[in-house]
Design goal:
This protein is of the alpha+beta class. It has 5 helices and 11 strands. It is about 30% helix and about 25% strand. The two termini are about 25 Å apart.
């Protein structure tokens, strides 16, 4: 399987920084890993770059409207970048759809202390490091809330971590990391025509994923 070091090596060769048979030095590899993780972190803000939408669930507590979410939160799981769909399930396994609303709609609800047997609205405040899920009306019965979320891009703690990814991502990682390294100050030995081809390849690879 492809490792972070493989991606970094190919990206540096795409810039001409390394020759065909050369490998990065320890410092170059470390710099490459830092740039790679920074690139992945920035992509976490681009919903269409995420290749997984996870369905997760948490129990609603009677009389409770808000739940922190993230590592160490009430919902102790990976903090989602966005919640795209949700429904609640009762004790009889009957499901009720919920409406995901943006902040302006949530703020427009005058009396947020209204209670109901069937909550209908979910608002997600994607604060960091803990987000907050708000439920309206406040539930009077115990439910389980199921939600679909996009998650942050996985980052890599070392160079040898094996990477499993869908088709198209490896090329995109290589091309875009090459440009990220160049922006970080790594030398580019490409002429203008070659650099334009690399830029176009990176754009095309990213567009194909989206």
């Amino acid at each position: 399987m492809t490792t972070a070091n493989d991606i970094i090596t190919r990206a540096m060769k795409s810039l001409g920084t390394l020759g065909r048979t050369e490998v990065p030095s320890a410092q170059e590899a470390s710099d490459g890993l830092t740039a790679f993780n920074a690139l992945l972190d920035s992509w976490s803000n681009e919903k269409l770059m995420s290749y997984v939408t996870l369905e997760r669930s948490f129990p609603l507590v009677v009389g409770t409207q808000s739940y922190t979410i993230g590592s160490g939160g009430v919902i102790n799981t990976q903090r989602p970048t966005d919640i795209t769909q949700a429904f609640i399930r009762d004790a009889n396994n009957l499901d009720y759809g919920m409406r995901i609303v943006p902040r302006d709609v949530w703020n427009g609800i005058g009396n947020k202390n209204i209670t109901s047997q069937i909550p209908q609205v979910l608002f997600y405040d994607s604060a960091y490091p803990l987000g907050t899920v708000y439920i309206f009306p406040i539930p009077l019965l115990n439910y389980t809330c199921y939600y679909d979320s996009t998650t942050q891009q996985v980052q890599f703690s070392d160079l040898t971590t094996a990477m499993s990814m869908p088709p198209g991502y490896e090329r995109c990682f290589v091309m875009c990391l090459a440009l990220e390294l160049m922006a970080a100050g790594y030398p580019c030995l490409l002429n203008q025509t070659q650099l334009a081809a690399l830029t176009n390849a990176a754009s095309e690879a990213k567009a194909a994923i989206k």
